[in-house]
Structures are given as C-alpha cells and as structure tokens.
Amino acid sequence: MKNPFRFEQIALLPYMAKWLALASLVAVLAGTASALFLFSLDIVTAWRLAHPPIIWLLPVAGFMVGWIYLHLGKNVEAGNNLIIDEIHDPKKVIPLRMAPLVLIGTITSHLFGASVGREGTAVQMGASLADQCTHVFRLAKKQRRILIMAGISAGFASVFGTPLAGAIFGLEVLMIGRMRYDAILPCFIAAIIADQVGLLLGVHHTHYVVSDIPAISVWSLTATLIAGILFGMVGMLFANATHGLSDFMKKHIRYAPLRPFIGGTIVAVAVYALGTQRYIGLGIPTIIESFQQPLPWHDFLGKMAFTITSLGTGFKGGEVTPLFYIGATLGNALAPLLHLPFPMLAALGFVAVFAGAANTPIASTVMAIELFGPTIGSYAALACVISYVFSGHTGIYRAQRVGHSKHRYLPEGLKLSELDAYRKRRGQQSDD
Q1: Which of 100, 267, 329, 380 is 20 to 30 A from 215 in CA distance terms?
Q2: Which stretches are transmembrane (predicted)?
Q3: Quick one: 379 exposed, middle or buried, by C-beta within 10 A (0-12, 13-18, 19+)?
Q4: Residue 427 pLDDT exceeds 90
C-alpha cells in the first residue's frame, strides 16, 4: 500500500529549495544594505558629535530631504505603511528608489541631528530590494507577499542583530492579533542569513548587560504588570502624538519641504536651549547608561518630545530605536518606585514600549531573550503582553489591519488609519 505522506514530503522538496534560494537572495541583499547603512550611521553620528554646531543646518537638511521626496519619492513616501499595504492588497512592485531615498534621508537626518531611528530604513530597504525579484522570477501575488515579508524580517534582523525576533516581526506586524504562517519558512531563513551576512561584513551590535534579575515572586510579577500598563500607555501616547503632529502639519503646511524645515528649526533651538545632544540621534549611550545607573526621571519625556517633533514633521528614519530609548529610561525611572533593579526594568521598558507601540508582543518578547538572556523571558512576556493590551487599537504603523481585536469588537481587516471614521459611523448609528 502506498504511503501518501511519503509523497507529500517529496513534493515539499521543490518548495523548500525554491524558498531557500529566494529567501537567501533576499537575505544577502538586505543584510548588505543594512551593513552599509549601519557603517554610514556610525560615521555621520561621530561627525555630528565632533561638530555640535552642525545642528543649525538641520532645518536646511530637512528642507532638502522634503524637496527630494516631493519630486522623486511621492510614491514611496508612505514608507513602512506602503509595504504593509502592498502585502495586504498587492497592486504594483515597490519602486526600487525607496531603498536609496530612505537611506539618504535617514543618514541626512542623523548627520544633522534629528531624533529618528533605524528600523524603518532597514525594513524599507529589505522589502523594496526583495520586491524587485517579483519580475525577475515572475512570482504570483501570494508568492510576492511572502517575499516582501521575508524582506521585512531580513531588514529588521540585520539592523538589530536579533534574527528570531526579526523573523517573527515580519509575521506579526501586518495584523493585530494574527500572524501569517504561510511565510514562516522564508521569514526565518531570510532573518537568520541576513543577520549572518551583517556579521560577516563586520557589523557590531550593541551589547546590553542585565546584571540583576530577581526570582519570580508575587511582588515582582505585580510590579511587572504595573510597569507593563505604563509602558503600553506611553507607547500609545507616542504613536498618537506622532500621527497627530503629522496630520496637523499636513493640514496647515501645504508645501511638504517646509514641514521638516520647521521641525528642524524647533529641534535645533531646543538643543541649543538645553545645551545637550542627549535627546537627538539614536541615543545608544543613554540607553546603555539606563542599564548601569539611575538616570534623570524625565529623560524619557525629552526623547519623546524630540522624536515626535522629528518624525511628525517629516524627517526620515524609524521609530523603534527611539522607543527603545524611551522604554529603557522610563523603566530606569520606575525602578525605585516599584522596588525592582533598574537594569531589569530598563530591559523590560526597552522591549515593552516597542511591543505596545508596534503591536508586536511576541517579537518583542523574543527580542528580550535574544538581547538580555533567557532569565528575563517570563518577565518580558508579561510586560510585553500587558503593554500590547493597554496600548489600545493604535500603533506606529497605520496600515496595520485588525485580525483579532484586543478587547472590544472591531471588524476584521479594518486599518488602524480607518479606526476613527469607523467609530464615528458607529456613534452616528447608535444616535439614530
């Protein structure tokens, strides 16, 4: 009697071979692009720190990047949201120009002193480079979706040195409460190989040391739950404020290049008034400090203000590293109030604020284990899940869809950007 399972496994071999080849190609492209980006970022950051007066050119730099996007990048300006939309509703191949434009825009932002991150750049480069394979290999829509997701995973993994979290991020970020398992193999292959490509090219990722993690107790879990609630609310505040400022600027400043010009002026004046560059750029030194010693309690507010101003007025980059900064310094400030070690709470804030703002609790939990070790796993899981729940139906990526709502009913497939209109319609119907 023939064994049907044997033939099924044999039929899987061509599938495995195809996605191993495609995902590996995407990984090499994304890993190389991320390495180039990270090396460039180190160079311009060192230059900015050595030449503080360059901050006064930030308005001009913002205007230039805005002008370039106005004339050359209108169809890719949506960034990560364009990528998510193309996965859900494929229309046309993501223009290759997305990669160099976001690379130039982000490097310029960091050179002159905007407070932006790096995840958005790596994800956009990875996804846009991956999508160029669509025509070359004549991929169908479903295959194209999977390839773009692999590009997201590869970009995220290679820029942070977290291959498992990167793979899960590409699966989890598309929909709230649901993951796309049809792309699980390509995403993991792409993330793992992209991370290795970066390491082979000489990329060095920041190492964080969490020296004191207490044994699980009633109080440690209760304190983690309280912290998770605060982390989620801060993530929600960050997302709403950034979107709100962006909407305000688009409504009142019609000429796009003027928006980052105004934002750059505000940031430059604020840096001069405060007499510190502590809240601009990536802020990695301050993140490291938050694991080593108590910091001023207001550091997270300073980084929030500078990042919301930078991103909300149109500077290019990402949100994730600033969210790491905000979370780590907030956790550092909460430690004495919750009677827990500040390295532990800094680590939990690092991942949990991101989990709430991006609606990616599983990827964030895995990231904590990859960065800080398995001992923190239970605490990180609780903090990230609570943050995810308490951040509400909002997030830094407006193109995210609702797969399963967090608590109240929301229709499946609803975009976060459509949520206000949906609630308004529901309110009008209840009034009628």
Answers
A1: 329
A2: 54-72, 146-171, 183-204, 216-239, 260-280, 337-358, 378-399
A3: buried
A4: no
180 and 280 both lie in a single domain? no
Cα distance between the two ends of the chain = 66
Mean pLDDT, the chain, rounded, equals 94
Would residue 430 count as lying in a domain?
no
Give which of 84, 111, 53, 257 is closest to 174, Cα–Cα: 84
The answer to whether residue 431 sits within a structural domain is: no
C-alpha–C-alpha distance, residues 59 and 259, integer Å: 9
- Domain tally, the chain: 2
User: By C-alpha distance, which of 231, 209, 258 is closest to 59?
Assistant: 258
**Same domain assignment for residues 351 and 249:** yes
Q: Are 349 and 155 in contact (CB under 8 A)?
A: no
pLDDT tens-place string over residues 169-207? 999 999 999 998 899 999 999 999 999 999 999 999 999
Q: What is the pLDDT of residues 306-325, one digit of tens each?
A: 999 999 999 999 899 999 99
Same domain as 345, residue 271: yes
Q: How far apart are CA 149 and CA 20, in angstroms?
A: 14
Q: 103 and 250 share a domain? A: no
Which domain range does residue 300 map to? Answer: 218-390
CB 97 within 8 A of CB 72: yes
Q: How far is CA 364 from CA 71, 258, 314, in A?
A: 37, 36, 26
Q: Is 172 found in the same domain as 286? A: no
Query: Is pLDDT at 429 greater than 80 in this prediction?
Result: no
Which DSSP string corresponds to 82-116? Answer: HHHHHHHS--SPPPTTHHHHHHHHHHHHHHHT---
Q: How many C-beta neighbours within 10 Å does residue 181 have?
A: 9
Let me know: does 411 contact 402? Beta carbons within 8 Å: yes
CATH number of the domain at 77, please: 1.10.3080.10
Within a domain: 403: no
**Residue whose entry in the numeric block shows the structure tokens 């001023």:** 296
Take residue 151 and report the two structure tokens written for it.
């590009």
